[in-house]
Amino acid sequence: MKAFAALIDALVYQPQRNLKLRLLSDYLACAPDPDRGYALAALTGDLDFPHAKPALIRGLVAERCDPVLFDLSYDYVGDLAETVALIWPKKHGANTALSLGEVVEVLRETGKAGLPAALERMLDALEPAERFALLKLITGAMRVGVSARLAKTAVAALGILDVNAIEEVWPGLSPPYETLFAWAAGTGPRPEGARALFRPVMLAHPLEEKDLAEFPPTDYLAEWKWDGIRVQAVSDGGTQRLYSRTGEDIGAAFPDVLSALPEDAVIDGELLILRDGEADSFNALQQRLNRKSVSAKMLAAAPAGIRAYDLLFRDGEDMREHPFERRRGALEGLIAARGSPRLDLSPLVPFATWQELAAHRASPPSPAIEGVMLKRRDSSYMPGRVTGLWWKWKRDPHLIDAVLMYAQRGHGKRSSFYSDYTFGVWQGEALVPVGKAYFGFTDAELKQIDKFVRDNTVETFGPVRVVAHQDGAGLVFEVAFEGLARSARHKSGVAMRFPRINRIRFDKPAREADTLEALQRLLP
Amino acid sequence: MDSLLLRPVPGGLYCEAGDFYVDPTRAVARAVITHGHSDHARAGHGAVLATRETLAIMAERYGEGFAGTTQALSYGEGVTIGGVSVRLAPAGHVLGSAQAVVEHKGMRIVVSGDYKRRRDPTCAPFEPVPCDIFITEATFGLPVFRHPEDAGEIAKLLHSVRLFPERAHLIVAYSLGKAQRIIALLREAGYAEPIFLHGAMAKLCALYEKLGVPLGALRPVMGAPKGELAGKIILAPPSALGDVWSRRLPDPVACFASGWMRVRARARQRGVELPLILSDHADWDELTGTLRDVGAGEVWVTHGQEDALVHQARKDGFRAKALALVGYGDEGEP
Ligand SMILES: [Zn+2]
Ligand SMILES: [Zn+2]
């Protein structure tokens, strides 16, 4: 438990991804089975203790601590697990070493009635940092800034495996992953996968118009890029699953889509609200997302479907090595044979020259289109963002001029720079914040903005600096963003998608920045 | 109860019988100063009574003319001011830090100033003085504050230095007391490399050495080539963290040495990569233990987390109250 607690602590304070990875790999290489497997499961969110819940912790600490002192402490610390870890009173002679494996087994296997006493014994046995790690296991979220992907990358770094190979077998595995570690170390075979697995998806690079001159148009096929959610639909021996781009199973909220899938196929496509063959906006789709289940009313009001891009498997055959053109042909046949309104094809966009394609892109036939995709005819389906095969050529972003209002320090290498900006537009005589951005500028520009922030701070609230933005003062950013939606959570009533700093307008007076009215006209 | 011997007034603690203040927060005619931190030791008093070391620290910080007249008192040595006897006992907080023991007509009050109970190689250890009224701070007066062993924190730092030989370790710490204690602890742990100092640290380190606290090889950061600072330990005041100044260091690991580092959110808020839980103040167990050691019938709490400590003191059978003095703890921790 000591080594795991030290890992959790080090990760909490380490902002840099590559150094987090180093910490993880070091731990996984040194820790024994099953400890390292449980640590991995804790980080990927695959540990669940049915009876060990936060209420249990509150009950225990109430018996062992003065309630006045506990409340004052909790107010001060702000986090239940940390407060209890620090305040837990020492019991002389109770301190013993416990491994993570032992702790997890107690939490998993002790029945509801015996759990309070078992947890109390463990809290007495452990040091403060270990208690914190234990309590975080129970409260669920580790919050150490490690994604499941990063944790799996650290496993891959133990040997010569690719992280995508681990993603493929992952859904068939369960903690403590002993077969996975053996495979990664080269001492065991590839673990057997489960049914209806997720396969890592292929991603496109953003295209700059000037790059096009280098590509012969005849090497490429073009199709519309739809503004929904990229998904992978898997149908395998009677099991249907719908995965997000990152491999999260989102099928429970989309029974309409699952029932439309053909037998034994893996389809790459865009999840959309489809009504009579017309795709609706991303906003329409949003009400169906992040649900555990869905009502019949919702199914009727917002029917979902897949607009298919690609075919990875068909009847057990792995199609990914085949050229795109061939996969596309097979996909067209499959969709036509299935004949479901919940599953259609993203049509190809015919073109002979780049100018012709640019003209199509400028006037797409549906508002749910956010650009075009270019795929090399001979490209095989390769996980990740492989250079030169697939390109996304988005519609030009929206641009507005906004005024810098607040700045906050960045993390890691940027921690000495004010690099996180909140900007606003005019509503009458006052600025109203409309978004935040922390990229889009060069290092040299960052230095300039940082200096501006330091020279023009009018007030400081903790880590936030208020930058002068009244009476003629202020710095104007040209902000680029992909779309705009109504939002009740924002004071301005609008929320931007993917805002970034496009240009810094040192030349422009703040008074001439855009107004909220102008921004609202961009709402769909 | 307000004692005639000592009572809280807007400028600090005032002794009417002897017409002097202890650690006044504004300029007064006569002051007894417990230690050199700026929230306790201010310039401009008429006459100042303190240890030789505290007077030297004040002269270093404020210049020779910081008070009209000064009088140095050794630990244990007594004087009488207007019929009130005053002596100083070690507080274990920073070099020269003292508790003021004030006695008059059979009533003894101890003003402990800031203090800690654990060993510190740079200053004399706290001496419990039995008394009628004990006046204590409560900077870390919550049971979540239990400082770990110093040796473990120093080992954590040295482990990180070995792990990242290409990076500088920037330790931010208060420039009076904490900085010198860290250096001394590093030397005790066998670290013999030169330690690099921010300009604001240099004078007080030199003064400590002059007053008999050896610190080993120290070098200024100013003028050192960036490459030479890789793998080295650098000490700077808290204002240097995330400041433009830190850009001269190679990919610095930000370390903060403070009792506040016990709480993760506090450490993350400051952008700290390696928190070091090293404090010059008593933790919860030291605070509550000290109340028992001095056996005072009554306890007054000056500043910090008064509510929790007053609550616990009452539970332990003391009469206790919070004085709610303002103006202390302004430097953050001192
Ligand atoms: Zn103080
Ligand atoms: Zn102090």
Question: What's the arrangement of secondary structure elements?
Answer:
The complex is a heterodimer of chains A (524) and B (334).
Chain A: H1 2-13, H2 17-30, H3 35-44, H4 54-64, H5 67-77, H6 80-87, H7 100-109, H8 115-125, H9 128-139, H10 148-156, H11 163-169, H12 178-184, E1 205-206, E2 220-226, E3 229-236, E4 239-244, H13 255-258, E5 265-275, E6 278-279, H14 282-286, H15 296-301, E7 304-314, E8 317-318, H16 324-338, E9 343-345, H17 354-362, E10 369-376, E11 390-394, E12 398-409, E13 418-427, E14 430-437, H18 443-455, E15 457-461, E16 464-467, E17 476-481, E18 483-486, E19 494-497, E20 500-505, H19 516-520
Parallel strand pairs in A: 1-11, 7-9
Antiparallel strand pairs in A: 2-10, 3-4, 3-5, 5-6, 5-7, 7-8, 10-11, 12-13, 12-16, 12-17, 13-14, 15-16, 17-20, 18-19
Chain B: E1 7-9, E2 12-15, E3 20-22, E4 30-32, E5 45-50, H1 52-62, E6 67-72, E7 78-81, E8 84-90, E9 98-104, E10 107-111, E11 133-138, H2 150-163, E12 169-172, H3 178-188, E13 195-197, H4 199-210, E14 218-220, E15 233-236, E16 253-257, H5 264-269, E17 274-276, H6 284-294, E18 298-304, H7 306-315, E19 319-322
Parallel strand pairs in B: 3-4, 4-5, 5-6, 10-11, 11-18, 12-15, 12-16, 13-14, 13-15, 16-17, 18-19
Antiparallel strand pairs in B: 1-2, 2-3, 7-8, 8-9, 9-10
Residues 35, 37, 93, 114, 334 of chain B line the site of one zinc ion (ZN).
